[in-house]
Amino acid sequence: MKRRTFLQKVGYSAGVLGFSALPFAMAQIFYPKLKAQPHERIPLPGALADHSAFIEACIGCGLCGEVCPPRCVLFHQSDGSKAANTPYIDPAEKSCILCGYCMEACPTDALTVTPLREVNMGIAQIDRVACYPWVDRGICGACVSVCPLGDKAIDFEFGNFYRPVVNDGCVGCGQCVEVCPEPSLPIRIVDRAKGAVAKHAVETSKETRQLDY
Amino acid sequence: MNKVRWLVLSSVFAMLVLLPFLHLYQSYEAAHAYDLLLPNEKAISDSMEWLTSPFIKDPEKDLNQLKGTTWSGTLFGYKMSDPLAVVGQIAASGSVYWPFLLTALIPILLSIVFGRFYCGWICPATLIYELNDNLATWLRKVGLPIGRRKLDKRVKYLVLLVGIVLAGLTGTVTFAAMYPPAIIGREIYYVIALNGFGAGMIFFLLTILFDLMVAQRGFCRYICPGGAVYSLLGRFRLLRIKRDVSQCNDCAKCNVVCQFGLDPLRDNFSQECNNCTACIAVCPTDALSFTVNVKDIDYQGSGHLGHQYRRQQEQNSEKELA
Fold it and tell me: Which of A39, A88, A178, B232 could form a disulfide with A92 if both were Cys (CB 3.0 to 4.6 A apart)?
């Protein structure tokens, strides 16, 4: 093969590739966030409120993971961060059942034995634009029926049977997140402070939400 | 005695492997989901049921009596932690949490009496390191270059100090990432129950290579911060190995067999001795035995059954005759 024809072929194929990549580039420009935001890693029940204090107290023994019946406790990998080998829960993967074994097993004060309703892992926040019953696109109520704490934590809206509303009793165990069937991920566990702001306001939730669908 | 030690070491290791399986069985039982399990999960559940059914009635709760690793665990209801974990946690958080300190009380008391016994009798890394050392001697016989360098024993105290300072500065328990028993317990659990492994596994493999290529049992002797803690605790230990001069024949097998590079032949055990009884087992004349003493005795001279001592005796008698 001559050098000229080779160069011509290379240029031609580069042009074809570039042209075919154009739709992807345009999609990136016009629809930059197509994936729903991944869920945050939430702390274990009874964990110290301050995350850095929790990391200081945790010795990384893994006992909480060993006693956990549903095996929801996962561990940060040693990725160079301070949190290496410390536990967390990903409620979308597997959620906490609030059995309290991990609090009893923990040898340090990283997890302290806390009464069931005083556990603070966060608070569930429902994105009312993404939740199907809230936009009248279906009937569901899975989150309300699975909640172990009853109507003090999550309940239907007054006079309505399918629109869920989070109450102050929510401890953030994340069972609603695990059970939620909707791909738009309308419910997630957030910090208590953040959740209180966005709880009742659809506008705020529109601003904070990161998903496009 | 040395065989008993091997039995203890391997049973501790076997327990660390068994515990994740027991935990899996426990979570299957708690979920009441036997019919939904995959075939391999069913095999785990069945075998664990066969193992545990003679001893316990309610697997969902009774199995919580036995949890954890040698880093921190529950042994038949008693919580125990490594003293190094306590040191690291106090350094990281800057405060003392009393219940956690109490969990380390039994190990601390035991190592004040028995010295660095944890390193020789319990530590799950020791099993692997000793097998690795046997491999090293074998490779040496084959003709491969095996490192037998000697470093300064005080390096491990420096590592301990630096670890404490780093823990205080960064606010993390730094020892958890570099202490082989903690790593092994955790990684075995990760591999079996969570299907994956962390960076600790790679670190542990590096320490094995270090032992093989740089120094014999190099990590335990020169680097391990836990070994440093136990050495300090066992400085005035009660139970020591003592050489009986009248029985010793200067064969120096004890010096060869001691993987920590100590010098039993010259009564030099120091705080590094982990009472592993390897020298007692190898001694052909039963000259070495345990005694209760707070300090090592000074060098007693060459053994009475050895050539050197007998030659001296003959010379002395000749002098007396002359």
Answer: A39
